[in-house]
Design a protein that fits this description.
By secondary structure, the protein is of the alpha/beta class. Helix content is about 30%, strand content about 25%. It has a domain at about 350-439: GMP Synthetase, Chain A, domain 3, CATH 3.30.300.30. Strands 4-3-5-6-7-8-9-13-12-11-10 form an 11-stranded mixed beta sheet, with helices on both faces. It is globular, with a radius of gyration of 22 Å. It starts with a helix and ends with a strand. Bound molecules: zinc ion. Zinc ion binds near residues 267, 329 and 331.
């Protein structure tokens, strides 16, 4: 049986068949997107209620049935939280265990028991095959994609592998990120010999690979890269500019997670993430009251997955903060944009005020004497002083005077009391980069 026959035999849920098999989601009209999302939500909420004991119980407790959820207003549906998923591998199943074909697990960087996300073959593969975003992700047959994201345990590496190979029909190099065979040295060798045209990695691994390339006298800026994507951890615009400069190409961010999959994709305008409207329906809610907020208002990002029927995820509280901007973008893509404002759990508290580490990083990374590796050292109970530890930039001689000057610069920029300390070399992260350390 060939793939076409398989697709025909398995079939797709009606909204997927109707909207995604013949149109491109990133040029779909706002009205078309709303219709697709309404029909998808109805189908997924019904499926969750009928087949998932977890959601049936939650909805019963909240006194709501699927028929009472109308259109895009999910206000009556209960939220799903990270704590409800932790340590409960099978909790989201709306299918038989034997139907599960892939099990992935959280990286554990936010603490607590693991979260498991499972997919059936139909959800993971077939339902998503037609849903590329060709304007936002212009990767074509003939492109060679260096995939320097972790492949094991979690979802990032495999998810992009699937997108590049199946949706874009491009060539993928599964370089990985820090796995058993995946050393920076070997990745540099692959780049030298295979000359990728696209790269995807995390911001900090982009710097690690560049350092390894410099040690081997290889200039990554000489690669025929038409674009790179950064994901897996956030960074400030100033850090992104540093990555773009050393790699000699445009770097766009991609926002997603194990639990939700694709959420937002940045265009070349670098002004927010276009919501991956075929994959997710996104709400912004008040952290305290849970009320849905208006466009432009900052709150917690809440996601409902639109392509997962067998392990549905409804109104998932991501603990990330952001706001939605519905205005048209100059790139021409009609999908609304999401602006991220950091993570609830990763704020730096100085003098009783919370700051996103990326806000502070932005000022730090504009100082040319500061290298690409740094830490903000804070007290868990809150600090009076923002203490910064950083490597000097290449060619800069560290001194106590220079450290004082940089502390003053940061004080001027942030309005906070700052301490600055040069260190010769900070440990290179194996997993996600830690910019905020508690002491
Ligand atoms: Zn755009």
């Amino acid at each position: 049986m060939n793939l076409k026959q398989v697709l025909k035999q398995i079939g797709r849920p009606a909204p997927v068949e109707k909207y995604l098999c013949h149109t491109f989601p990133d040029i779909i009209s706002p009205a078309g997107l709303a219709e697709y999302q309404k029909e998808s939500l109805r189908a997924i909420i019904e499926r969750a209620y009928e087949h998932s004991p977890f959601y049936r119980e939650k909805m019963t407790r909240a006194g709501v049935t699927p028929g009472e959820v109308v259109g895009l207003d999910l206000g009556r549906l209960p939220f799903t939280t990270k704590d409800e998923l932790r340590g409960k591998p099978w909790v989201l199943l709306a299918c038989e265990r034997e139907d599960v074909s892939l099990i992935q697990v959280s990286t554990g960087t936010t603490g607590g028991e693991e979260i498991y996300i499972m997919n059936t073959w139909e959800d993971y593969y077939l339902r998503e095959m037609a849903t590329g975003y060709p304007v936002l992700v212009p990767i074509e047959p003939g492109d060679i994609c260096l995939n320097a994201l972790p492949y094991e345990m979690s979802s990032a590496g495999l998810a992009f592998h699937k997108t590049f190979m199946d949706s874009c029909q491009a060539t993928v190099i599964p370089a990985g990120k820090g796995g058993a065979y995946s050393t920076p040295a070997k990745t540099v060798k692959l780049m030298r010999e295979l000359q990728p045209t696209v790269a995807i990695t995390s911001p900090s691994w982009a710097v690690t690979l560049h350092e390894a390339a410099v040690e081997r006298a290889f200039d990554v800026a000489g690669l025929p890269l038409k674009r790179m994507w950064l994901t897996g951890e956030g960074c400030s615009p100033a850090f992104r500019e540093r990555v773009e400069k050393i790699w000699g190409t445009v770097a766009n961010f991609y926002y997603g997670s194990l639990e939700c999959g694709a959420i937002g994709i940045e265009c070349d305008a670098h002004n927010g993430y276009h919501l991956a409207g075929a994959h997710v329906f996104v709400e912004i809610v008040d952290q305290e009251s849970g009320e849905v907020l208006e466009p432009g208002e900052i709150g917690e990002i809440v996601v409902t997955c639109l392509l997962r029927y067998d392990t549905p995820l409804l109104r998932y509280r991501t603990q990330d903060l952001g706001f939605i901007e519905p205005d048209p973008c100059r790139c021409g893509v009609a999908l609304p944009r999401l602006h991220l404002r950091g993570r609830l759990t990763e704020q730096v508290v100085i003098q009783g005020v919370s700051f996103s580490p990326f806000y502070l990083e932005e000022f730090l990374m504009r100082i040319p004497e500061v290298g690409n590796w740094f830490q903000f050292v804070v007290n868990p109970a809150g600090s009076d002083v923002l203490r910064i530890r950083a490597e000097p930039a290449a060619g800069v001689s560290p001194s106590a005077e220079l450290a004082d000057t940089l502390a003053s610069k940061m004080e001027f920029a942030t309005g906070l009391s700052c301490g600055f300390e040069f260190v010769a070399k900070l440990p290179r992260p194996h997993g996600k980069t830690v910019r905020v350390v508690h002491q």
